[in-house]
Amino acid sequence: MLGNSTPISSYPLPTPLARLSLAIPILLAAGVPASAGPPQGDPLSFFEGRTETAGTIRVLMRKPYRTRSVGHGRMERDGSLTLVQRVHDDDGQPSRERRWKVRRLGAQRFTAAMTEAVGPVQIDKVGQSYRFRFKMKGNLTAEQWMTLLPGGRSARNTLKVRRMGITVATSTGVVRKV
User: Fold this and answer.
1) What is the CATH code for 24-42+49-177?
2) In the chain, what are the domain boundaries?
């Protein structure tokens, strides 16, 4: 369910898929220590309120472009996180809304539904980072890593999108709690 109505498989390159690179950083920043905001053991609360993300997307055989998003998150009564992002890319496409619903599965595991993913998003804590893995339309797979930066209010994000094992898009960015 991409922000536009064009099927992803009709794009010559997975530009819309690479846009996910800044959605994931917001969720991956969940490793923020208790002193930076959320209570220890409750990383989802980091996303309550406003977050901002900025980065660069590189798609195979295309000029890199900047992307940014503003997210508004709220913790639900059941402990899940609802996150709505407004995404703006400098690639000529109109801005769009992305929605997340994230639930905790265990101490170091989460699952999420996201409008641009096909099926669930698997989120695992690996050391001090979070790894997101998910599938997308067009036979694409994505793996994203978020690592907390000093100060605990921002995190570095890296994303790789692959088609048939070949990297077709990458992204780097930073998410910060506002």
Assistant:
1) 2.40.128.20
2) 24-42+49-177
First to last CA, the chain: 28
Structure tokens, 43: 């990383």
Q: Which residue has the tokens 């010559």?
A: 12
Q: Quick one: which of 23, 29, 36 has its CA closest to 156?
A: 29
What is d(CA 4, CA 144) in angstroms, rounded to the nearest whole number? 23
> Exposure of 40 by Cβ count < 10 A (0-12 exposed, 13-18 middle, 19+ buried)?
exposed
Find where tokens 């000029």 sit: 63
Q: Are 146 and 129 a contacting pair, CB within 8 Å?
A: yes
Q: Give residue-wise pLDDT tens across range 87-112.
A: 999 988 899 999 999 999 998 999 99
Q: What is the dihedral of CA 19, 125, 112, 145, to 10 degrees?
A: 10
Tell me the CA distances in angstroms from 33 to 37, 130, 135, 147, 165, one per residue in order.
7, 13, 29, 12, 35
Enter the pTM of the model: 0.77
Query: CA–CA separation, 119 vs 101, rounded Å?
Result: 12
